[in-house]
Design a protein that fits this description.
Blueprint lengths: L10 H4 L4 H11 L4 E2 L2 E2 L11 E8 L1 E5 L6 H7 L2 H11 L5 H12 L5 E3 L3 E4 L5 H10 L19 E4 L2 E6 L1 H14 L5 H11 L3 E3 L4 E4 L4 E2 L4 H26 L8 E5 L6 H7 L4 H8 L10 H28 L23 E7 H8 L7 H18 L8 E2 L2 E3 L6 H4 L9 H14 L3 E2 L2 E2 L6 H10 L5 E3 L3 H4 L19 H11 L13 E4 L1 H4 L3 E7 L1 E2 L2 H24 L12 H16 L3 E5 L5 H7 L6 E2 L6 E5 H15 L1 H7 L2 H12 L5 H13 L9 H38 L1 H7 L5 H10 L2 H5 L5 H21 L2
Antiparallel strand pairs: 1-2, 3-10, 3-11, 3-13, 4-5, 4-12, 6-8, 7-8, 9-10, 13-20, 14-21, 15-18, 16-17, 19-20, 22-24, 23-24
Helix pairs in contact: 6-7, 7-8, 7-9, 9-21, 9-28, 9-32, 14-21, 16-22, 24-26, 28-32, 29-32
Length: 794
């Protein structure tokens, strides 16, 4: 019995032992077993039936309306900042172009979409329960019922004539509307409270965007991929219906403020424009979320959001120094990035998978398995998993983007890569990117000179089109901080991230108060209440039931394979050293894949024995002519080699999981680019605008069309997909729990509601053509399905 095993010695004592001893102890404490085939894979963490999962989605929020009616332009024009720059321009203290650019932004927004604007609603439209929710969320400390209100409460209320209006971000509008909906349903108070507990605390925010976490934790009793992706689809559908409810119930459309929420992995073009017109402080006032929901002390979290923005803005400036040290910038002619950094408005999807076996062992104080073991094994599993991440980039999620010639200032286009890659790999990436992009004159790559009119002229004369990349979010956002020579984030030592953050703070890269950015993050039991990993590399899923479902299954397989490697002694920390160079060497493939570069380079004497295992199965490799000490590797061949490793080393796991279809799906994506997430998005864009290549449109036109594609066509596709899932789940629920259904829908209206679900389309929802009554009926069906699913997954 696990409880009979002695508690292991402190980690300092363990360090005196060999890694084999630590791994063997973990093996025993977790109860991993052998059978006649060798290791019993069903006893591994993340094996079949062992995995739980949840996700967070970040969404783009937009308000459509005239500038006179929408909060963002009105707030800017009425601000002290706007008045001050007007006076300073008159006095000659600032150049005239700044005010002119801001006025152009406000006056010439012909499409009338205002991204990340707040909304203004009449308090009279809110139910008593919604007002009670608002009052609670305005407390300075929600754990204290006698707490004072937040010190910034005045910013949430404005006077309009004789009426007081509530002024809130869309992320909070979603929660308030959800509370209002539940309050107006004709159901028992016990059931209403159950729904409130299920939903309301899941509505939160990222730095700027709405962020909504899973309404329930999916359990691998059935197909985990289908369960998790289905939950997100239903969650997304509910969000769309809540938005439609808000537009009507709170009179938003009537007052000229139509709200739209959708998936978009990039900062909006509007966000980019306004960041060039305002100071960083005013930018934060406009866009940093006030954190009304999701945290007990919202103002503290709000200040943390400010810190993140300030640190990343400073960090991007410090990246310029690294580019100079790397020899990429060779003189003092640089284009300074805006201090109003927009990278925090990148919207990704985080998928967390937990292991019941790890969680149970850590929950049992007598098991002997401690956070020390969790960290040691978890860090090593992450290092293994990072090798497989190129299989996901572009294949399952994407963030396609067009870059113009004028974007190719290295200090702008390379984003945070100087903080994520070793100088050697950074130089290699930059050289290959310049060669791939259409920025060459007579065969020689050139980069912009600085003055915009000169760069535009050169671009026109020599037809320098720039480039098209398949996941720009991974380039434009700080996704994985590189370790320092002294401290690594993944060396298996508890507390290592604190030491690394101290190093990075001294270098002007990061701040110790911030959570460390990694592609795969250990979710520690003592912090999260479960043990597992959070994948943070996902950008945009084209489909819930295809891309997302298969990505989750593949993610689970990789974790199980990593623990199989570790607990059978096939991979140790020594096999994947923690030096910055080796770390950069394995991660470079992810960034090369995001840019869609054809080749990368691995040192022929690399210390990474795991990457050697993959290279041994990689075809068409050779010693580089340009870099004699390096092996040139084709990325597509490397991905095929990763696929072979998965199939061969994980054959027993694939059989256990029943993942033959998922493996075939991955193989098809590697063979046929049009079947990938990036390929499907590009295919839709090319069909809609009758182009053969993304380079047939200039960068601004392509990105504008892409933005509208996310806003309308893809949003509608996602809703249609979710409606099919709801229809299927509701039919299943009727046969499984008729009593629960009757709590929401009377037997007399059941057939009417079923017909409503099967007859409507995504277009009906995106066009706001459903009546308020129809929206509420569908929401009630959604609530019944979610309540059933939450109970089933306990």
């Amino acid at each position: 019995m696990l409880a009979e095993r002695p508690t292991p010695p402190p980690f300092r004592e363990q360090l005196k032992d060999s890694s084999e001893d630590i791994l063997q102890e973990s093996f025993l404490l977790l109860g991993v077993k052998y059978n006649y085939k060798g290791i019993d894979i069903s006893s591994l963490p993340f094996s079949a039936g062992d995995t739980t999962g949840g996700s967070e989605l970040e969404l783009q929020a937009t308000v459509f309306g005239r500038k006179e009616d929408v909060d963002l332009p009105a707030f800017i024009e009425q601000s002290n900042y706007y008045a001050n720059i007007q006076k300073r321009e008159k006095s000659g203290d600032i150049e005239k172009g700044l005010l002119s650019k801001l006025k152009t932004f406000l006056d010439e927004n012909k499409e009338a979409y205002w991204d990340n604007s707040w909304v203004r609603i009449s308090l009279k439209t809110l139910s008593k329960k919604a007002l009670k929710t608002l009052r609670y969320d305005l407390l300075a400390d929600k754990t204290d019922s006698k707490s004072d209100f937040r010190t910034d409460m005045d910013r949430f209320f404005i006077n309009s004539g004789d009426e007081e209006l509530l002024r809130i971000p869309i992320s909070y509008l979603l929660k308030l509307a959800a509370a209002d909906i539940v309050a107006n349903l004709n159901i028992s108070e016990n059931l209403a409270q159950r729904i409130r507990l299920l939903l309301l605390d899941k509505f939160s925010n990222d730095n700027t965007s709405p962020e909504i976490s899973s309404f329930y934790i999916a359990n691998s009793k059935t197909n985990l991929g289908s369960e998790l992706s289905g939950e997100m689809a239903l969650r997304y559908l509910l969000i769309q219906l809540i938005v439609g409810y808000s537009n009507k119930k709170f009179n938003l459309v009537d007052s000229g403020q139509k709200v739209i929420v959708y998936f978009s992995p990039h900062p909006s073009l509007m966000q980019k424009t306004i960041s060039e017109c305002v100071s960083d402080c005013f930018y934060r006032e406009l866009f940093m979320n006030p954190c009304l929901s999701g945290w007990n002390r919202g103002e503290d979290k709000y200040r943390y959001m400010h810190l993140c923005h300030m640190v990343l803005s400073r960090s991007q400036l410090n990246a310029i120094l690294k580019l100079r040290e790397a020899g990429i910038i060779t003189n003092n002619l640089v284009v300074l990035p805006n201090l109003s950094n927009i990278s925090l408005t990148n919207n990704g999807i985080h998928i967390s998978l937990g292991s019941k076996k790890l969680t149970d062992a850590l929950s049992d104080s007598q098991s002997g398995f401690s956070s020390v073991h969790e960290k040691y094994l978890g860090d090593l599993a992450i290092k293994v998993a990072e090798h497989f991440l190129p299989l996901f980039v572009g294949n399952y999620t994407s963030a396609v983007y067009r870059l113009s010639f004028t974007d190719f200032h290295p200090e702008k286009v390379l984003g945070y890569l100087p903080h994520e890659l070793d100088f050697t790999h950074l130089r290699m990436l930059w050289r290959r990117w310049k060669k791939k992009a259409k920025i060459s004159i007579f065969g020689n790559p050139v980069t912009p000179f600085g003055p915009t009119f000169i760069d535009n002229f050169i671009s026109f004369v020599f037809s320098l089109k720039g480039d098209y990349v398949i996941d720009y979010r991974l380039i434009n956002y700080l996704v994985a901080l590189l370790s320092t020579e002294k401290n690594s984030a993944l060396n298996g030592v508890k507390g290592n991230s604190v030491s690394l953050k101290k190093d990075l703070e001294q270098m002007g890269v990061f701040d110790t108060q911030m959570s460390l950015y990694l592609l795969e993050k250990l979710r520690e039991f003592e912090v999260m209440g479960f043990s597992g990993f959070e994948s943070r590399h996902y950008s945009l899923f084209y489909s819930f039931t295809d891309d997302m479902k298969n990505a989750i299954l593949l993610q689970n397989l990789i974790y199980a394979l990593a623990y199989k490697y570790i607990l059978t002694g096939q991979v140790s920390h020594r096999d994947i050293p923690d030096s910055p160079f080796v770390e950069s060497e394995r991660r470079q493939v992810i960034f090369f894949s995001a840019i869609d570069l054809p080749t990368f380079f691995v040192h022929k004497d690399t210390q990474n024995r795991f990457i050697k295992r993959v290279l041994a199965k990689t075809e068409k490799t050779r010693v580089s002519n340009r870099y004699p000490n390096y092996i040139r590797v084709y990325i597509n061949e490397y991905k095929r080699a990763l696929f072979k490793v998965l199939k061969e080393d994980g054959a027993d796991l694939i059989e256990m999981f029943g993942m033959v279809d998922t493996i075939k799906n991955l193989e098809d994506r590697l063979k046929y680019p049009e079947k990938t997430s990036a390929g499907k998005v590009l295919k839709d864009i090319k069909r809609a605008h009758r182009i053969k290549s993304p380079l047939d449109l200039n960068a601004d036109d392509f990105n504008k069309k892409l933005e509208n594609y996310y806003r309308f066509e893809l949003r509608q596709k996602h809703i249609d997909e979710a409606l099919k899932i709801l229809d299927s789940e509701f039919e299943h629920l009727i046969t499984q729990d008729k009593e629960l259904v009757n709590n929401f829908v009377s037997s007399g209206e059941l057939e009417q509601v079923k017909n409503l679900i099967s007859s409507i389309s995504g277009k009906d929802i995106t066009d706001d053509s459903l009546s308020l009554d129809e929206q509420v009926k569908i929401i009630k069906i959604l609530f019944s399905v979610l309540c059933h699913k939450e109970k089933f997954n306990r």
